[in-house]
Write a structure and sequence with these properties.
Blueprint: E1 4-6, H1 7-10, E2 16-18, H2 27-36, E3 40-43, E4 46-49, H3 51-63, H4 68-71
Antiparallel strand pairs: 1-2, 3-4
Length: 89
């Protein structure tokens, strides 16, 4: 399993390796493409969002559904020994 680069792991403007990427992604190429498209810019070794990058982030946030915990109420557990009449869960 190859380590990946995770922008979320180190906080804003920082990257850190995360040991859970098994896709062998070339993150330097990904960041290079994003910079070429004018989304982030690199200033003094820190990535910042450009105006175009912030607009793209806002569009993505609008299209991304809320986490399941925010959309569905928790279902009560069935008492021990009772079967779910609607089928298996």
């Amino acid at each position: 399993m190859a380590p990946s680069t995770s922008a979320r792991g180190a906080g804003p403007g920082r990257r850190t390796t995360a040991p859970f990427d098994d896709r062998d992604s070339d993150f330097e190429a990904v960041y290079g493409d994003l910079i070429a498209f004018g989304r982030p810019a690199e200033e003094q070794g820190t990535y910042i969002l450009t105006e175009a990058g912030e607009a793209g982030r806002s569009r993505a946030a609008e299209r991304t559904p809320a986490p399941a915990a925010d959309r569905f109420p928790a279902r009560p557990a069935l008492p021990r020994g009772r079967q779910n009449p609607g089928g298996s869960v």
